[in-house]
Amino acid sequence: MTSEIQTKTSFLHDPSNPNLRFLEEVSAHTAGVSRLEMCIQCGTCGGSCPPAADMDHTPRMLFAMIRAGFREEALSSNTPWICVSCYHCVVRCPQGVHIADVMYTLKSMAIRAKLYQDSTAPDFSRSFVDNIEKYGRSYEFGLATRHYLKHFPLRLPGMAPMGFGMLTKQRMDIMPHKIDNIDQLQAILERAKEVEGLS
Amino acid sequence: MNDKYLYYPGCSMESSAKAYSESLAAICEPIGLHLEEINDWNCCGATEYIGISLTPAYSLITRNLALASLQADGTRTVVAPCSACYLNLAKADYYMQERPILGENVNTALAAGGLHYDPGSLFIRHLLDVIINDIGLDKVKSKVVRPLTGLRVAPYLGCMVPRPDYEHRWSNPEYPNELDRLLKTLGAEVIDFPLKTHCCGGHMTQIGPNTAFELIRRLVSSADQYRAEVMVTLGPMCQMNIDAYQGEMNRHFHTDYRMPIIFFTQLMGLAFGLNAKQLGFGRELVGTREMLQRIGVEAPEPIEAVPAHKPRMKEGLPMPRMPGDEEVN
User: How far apart are CA A118 and CA A134, in angstroms?
Assistant: First the structure.
């Protein structure tokens, strides 16, 4: 399958077409084989998307922008941040594009390029990941307090009954849990960042 | 033949989804399910780490699979009860095979911790898949002593278990019938819930509440229109969004839904005659007292006594309301 795609997409490696470099870059940073270049612009993705109404661009439009080399516009779009990873588009896409995973790629590229203006979602991911790197487990109480105080202070009064309920029903721990072999995990993540070219 | 399963609980099972964890522990013995927890497992990164960087995110996930391989001892199946954990583990295994460079990079990173994982060497499966396809509905049926006759339930799977389903384990990625069949076996009246695999908003309750509230409203109002008495789910995040954020969603839309949502393992436990407290009932924020009474089960005392306080007046003055008002839009 992979080799077939590579043959079909050899035009991607044509150095005389600079616009395609962005598409290549997106594919290179996606977990599986993105198949992004196979998109036929049918719009099934946008039509299947539950939060499409809140997006700057439908996925179809975003993919057209990526292929046209609209790097800055694509990376400042709120679309990947509104994506809820429901995979409706993925199972319906007639071309098998890994749409949800491309959205994750665009998020990470937008963070690195500092192009997405609203910091709410990137901050949330960052805090979540900081806790994992420190403890090896997610730490909901620390994450929630830090996140809501910074980004949604006005939501706090309305959320108090919920937070209180989660605590009294022992569904949220005040202290974080740390895995035993945190050193091993940190060494793995350190090496992974080197491989990724992040450190 | 070793009949144990390697078990990856995931962080939520120890916190927000304790009821899932407690009820699963209670039903394992009756259905003969042997789970062996992966030693020193770590968080799968949920939907957050993959949005930051690729190799670190997949190395984090795959450390768990590498640890599981060390414990395999004849078994090759890893079971996850949480939707996001299941999908992350399954995707890591699948993508490392689909794109070998990812596998090489991840194994380079794992080597820094003395670990290694061969993609494809383990089967990653969701708990419901194992119960339906390995344990079997006949076995489940044979343990039912308190059929849930007359209880109208809405089966709600959410997104990440039936989709993208690269391994084709489910009957349909958008309208699977596995959960329906299980609940029918327990004697419940299962509604044909059209939104059974629609999204609850995932992490949007944290970062884009208005987007999330709309998705939660769609689910709860649909279940309500079908006169479901309880929604039944299999994912900690789905449960938390619909249970814990239902109040905030109600305030946002000026609605008054009270749709309880519980885990399918809790309902299995009830049908097996176990007591409600042991199954984690009482931890939900939208109460299940009425639903439990329907099948003649005494609701447990609240987990921790909440200090009594004077009932507060609802926001604003009482206004006339027509039945069905909340169903507009």
Answer: 26
Do the Cβ atoms of B51 and A125 come within 8 Å? yes
Buried b (16+ CB within 10 A) or exposed e, A65-80: bbbebbbeebbbbbbb
Query: What is the per-residue pLDDT across A80-104, written as a single tens digit (0 to 9) for each?
Result: 999 999 999 999 999 999 999 999 9
| Residue whose C-alpha is closest to residue B40's, from A171, A153, A182, A157 | A182
Distance CA B172, CA B20 (A): 25
Residue A190 phi, psi (nearest 5):
-60, -50
- Lookup: tokens for A132: 């994992």
Average pLDDT, chain A: 90
| 3-state DSSP of B242-258 | HHHCHHHHHHHHCCCCC
Which residue in B21, B85, B117, B199 has the most chain A C-beta atoms within 10 A of its own C-beta, making it the best mutation to test that interface? B199
Could you report the per-residue pLDDT of A162-194, keeping only the tens digit for each?
Answer: 988 999 999 998 899 999 999 999 999 999 999
3-state secondary structure chain B: CCCEEEECCCHHHHCCCHHHHHHHHHHHHHHCCEEEECCCCCCCCCCCHHHCCHHHHHHHHHHHHHHHHHHCCCCCEEEECCHHHHHHHHHHHHHHHHCHHHHHHHHHHHHCCCCCCCCCCCEEEEHHHHHHHHHCHHHHHHCCCCCCCCCEEEEECCCCCCCCCCCCCCCCCCCCCHHHHHHHHCCCEECCCCCCCCCCCCCHHHHCHHHHHHHHHHHHHHHHHCCCCEEEECCHHHHHHHHHCHHHHHHHHCCCCCCCEEEHHHHHHHHCCCCCHHHCCCCCCCCCHHHHHHCCCCCCCCCCCCCCCCCCCCCCCCCCCCCCHHHCC
Query: pTM score, two decimals?
Result: 0.91
Task: State yes or no: pLDDT of B186 exceeds 60.
Answer: yes
**Residue A177 DSSP one-character state:** P
Q: Which amino acid is at A58?
A: T
Using alpha carbons, list the distances in angstroms from residue B63 to B42, B106, B164, B205: 8, 9, 22, 29
Which chain A residue has its CA at the smallest distance from B213's CA?
A: A51
For B312-329, write each residue's pLDDT tens digit.
555 556 666 666 655 544
The bridge status of strand B34-37 relative to strand B4-7 is parallel
What average pLDDT score do residues B216-244 get? Answer: 97
Nearest to B247 among A129, A162, A169 (CB): A162
A161 to chain B, minimum CA–CA distance in Å?
9
